[in-house]
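I'd like us to work through together how a protein chain folds, taking it slowly. To get us started, please write out a protein record for me. Label the sequence line and the structure token line clearly, so we can match residues to local backbone shapes. Once you have written the record down, we can walk along the chain together.
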Amino acid sequence: MDQKSYDHQSEILIRDLNGADSLEELTILLNRAYGYLQRMGLKFLATHQDASITRRRVESARCFVIEIAGEIVGTACYYDPEHSRGCSFYERPDVGTLAQLAVKPELQGKGLATRLVQRVEKQARADGCNYLALDTAEPAHHLIEWYNRMGYEFICYHQWPVTNYRSVVMAKRLA
């Protein structure tokens, strides 16, 4: 069943990615949204992934999209505890993971990413998670600060084989 959250005042729809959505367009959104991080010299997978990688990443996740006037302008992936992988904290049975959070560059800074994170947190709570975890690049101080303001705290460092930076793993207690 397609879970939807609709805000009549701002005409924003948050829904599950579905088969009618283009993974090629979603990939372009991800590449563009992460472009400024690439210009900082940070090699996030989303800076250069192709549609086949996007497909693989969304197949094991619950992928939410944010839509305005019929256009997908943002996305976030939620991995339940059964599908959270990569570092020891992610593999705990009470931890869900947030990944691939992206908003169209011209709409960044308008609260859309916050809405997506809140939607993922709601799903993680519904799944019985005690924590929602995520990671970002250690040099991306602005992202670390943003997540801190949203209640996420430092857990550990991790080095992913596909990045050129050390990641900061952060989590928020949901209970």
Observations:
- The CA atoms of residues 24 and 51 lie 5 Å apart.
